Amino acid sequence: MKIALSKQWSFLDYITVLKPVETSLLAFIGIFSAIIAAGGYPPARVLVLLLIALILGSAGSNGLTNYLDREVDACMMRTYNRALPSKRIDPPQKTLPLIIGLIVVGLALAWILHPLCFLFGLIGVIASSVWRKTISCTFLGIVAGCSPVLIGWFAISPAFNTTILLLCGLVAIWTPIHVWTVMIANREDYLGADLHYFPLSWQVKDVVKILFGLSILLYFVSIILYVAADFHLLYLIVANILGILMIFANGRLLFSMTSVAAWRVYKLSAFPYLGIIFLTMGLDIWLT
Fold first, then answer.
1. What is the pTM (predicted TM-score) of this model?
2. CATH number among 1.10.357.140, 3.90.960.10, 3.30.70.260, 3.90.550.10, domain 1-159
């Protein structure tokens, strides 16, 4: 019985290394990017292949970031109990065959979809793995976050237009809001791990001003999408509600500058914002 439980926990540890929640969100927005590109109904074969490629590639990339961050994670209260820093998987190199295998298969499937899907996938993997925990990580996070959106789009419509640029713009503005708020919420934890890059090198009162400005910009980009992508009333209503909620939450952070307020913005900005707004784009196309 103990052996069975040990194997079960070991399997779950390997799954957690792949960050299933983050992987699901990345695959989700990639799929809805394809739905938007197709005007509602992508070919079933392409959609299935795309879903598998996104899940495997995103899981592999997330696993790679966990592997690379394991020593820093061991120094932080928020992350020290993860499978790698806690040494529940030891040595950590045991995860590499799984991680590399997922990335390779994901990229191979992306190539089958379209060579540009492979290119954007490869760029996403590289962006996820270099200059970890440095001032560059926010920019690279933007690149990695846009990767599934571009893969989904180019699997269906291999050409740039205003809509895909605005979708990437939405993700690009969303990324620092999501990343910086978790850093503000756990600021002492990051500093205790000897991490002092931006925005940790700035005072909180200055960073929250930028975040508030970004939340306003995020709202405007979401509304411009309504016009540029020819969405309908459903999208307009939901985009307004989500945008106002983000501005309100960042406004509270601006005035309170507390870890609790920063954590609330972080949680709101994940699926409640990014997931729902992409879902609404798809529903808007299907229902109108």
1. 0.93
2. 1.10.357.140
